[in-house]
Amino acid sequence: MPQFAGVYVAVITPFTSEDRVDLDRLREHVSWLIDQGVHGIVPTGSCGEYAALSDTERTAVVENVAAVCKGRVPLVVGTGASSTRNAVRWAEHARSCGAAGIMALPPSAYRPNRREIRAWYEALDNVGLPIIAYNNPFDTTVDLTPDLLLELQELENLVAVKEYSGDVRRIPIILETTKLEVIVGCDDLALEGLLAGATGWIAGLTNVVARESIDLYDLVMQRRIDEASALYRKLLPLFRYDSRPTFVQAIKFAFERIGKSAGATRPPRLPLDDSDRRLIAEALDPFVTVAHH
Question: What domains lie within the chain, and their CATH numbers?
Answer without folding.
Answer: 6-233 (3.20.20.70)
